[in-house]
Amino acid sequence: MLAHIQNLCVKASEEGNSNKHQRIRVTHWVRKLRSQPTSNPTWLKNVLEYANVLLQMILEGVIEEPFTKMPPQGPLAALPRHQVARLQAKTAKQIVRTQSAQHSSLETPPAKQQPPNNNSDENAGAVAAVDKQIQTQEQDDQWEWQRVWKGAFDKMHQQLQLKTEETEALGSENKEMRALVVGCKKALEEAERNQRDIEAKHLAEIENLRAVHALELSDLQDRHRQKLKEVTLLNDEKLLSRRRESNCIRPALSSNTMPRDDRADANADFLHYIDTFYSDTLNLMAQNKN
């Protein structure tokens, strides 16, 4: 049928009833129909419907959708129902006409039998050879289609296996990373806990040192006060003893000594006492600092 379609298209092109582009599109459609799988009854029915519709359009000389464009890539979709219904109606009319012609031929007297023609035998042999070639080509196309699909399925299966292995590897790596993250988190928590303990101990030591320093400072201040008191008492004793000595020395002085000199001596003694007291105080403070 497909070879007949192609022959009709070539004949129409030679007669000028079809343009070059339409003939190219029909040729591509014939190749597309030959390359379609027919092992499934549904696929075979779809291919036959396309071929019958295309043949009917070529016979009528009116090419309609979808044959006005190049065939699509991939498997062919089912024809629209209105085209299939129209094809069935035309087929039914042709069957009725054929039956009517056969009935009328039965009623008419038989004509004289023509002697067998060698040309008709040769045509029949050529048609049989063409049909056999078409059938062989269809089988080869079917096997080629199955091989292509099998290769595509094998490639998809290999890709799926690779993706599965990659997914498993990523899953195991993810588990290891999760375990590592958990370990790092525990170590971080332990380090933070140790840091808090060290800070608490450090603060406690600082408080203890402050308390000890306060006690030592208080003790030093007490000893300093005590030494100041001792020095003050010692200076007071020295001052009293000097006053006694001065009181004892005064009666022994001559009567002609002027009171002004007495006052000068008393002032000198007092200044000497102040200088000594100030010097002793500075020495004591220096000793306490050391």
TrEMBL record:
Pfam families: DUF4485
Region of interest: Disordered: 91-125
Coiled-coil residue windows: 174-237
Biased composition (Polar residues): 96-107
Alphabetically ordered keywords of this record: Coiled coil
Domain named DUF4485: residues: 18-82
Protein name: DUF4485 domain-containing protein
Lineage: Eukaryota, Sar, Stramenopiles, Oomycota, Peronosporomycetes
